[in-house]
Amino acid sequence: MIEDLVFLQKLQEAGVTDDMLALYRQYVNSGDRQGQKRLLHRFCRIQNLKLRSDREKITCLDYMIAKVENM
Fold this sequence. Notes:
By secondary structure, the protein is mainly α. It is built from 3 helices and no strands. It is elongated.
């Protein structure tokens, strides 16, 4: 299906690992929509954890910049 191809492309652009992408393809080919949904939720959680970590790093850098500016 064209929609599934678009999903695969978007997943690649979002940074899904090759293993997760292969698993998603398996779910698409077998018609396992629940598997697709679980995998997308898992990837979303992973991305949210990375985002949270990146925010913490930025907050730390902002703090350091403020400290240096006030010296």
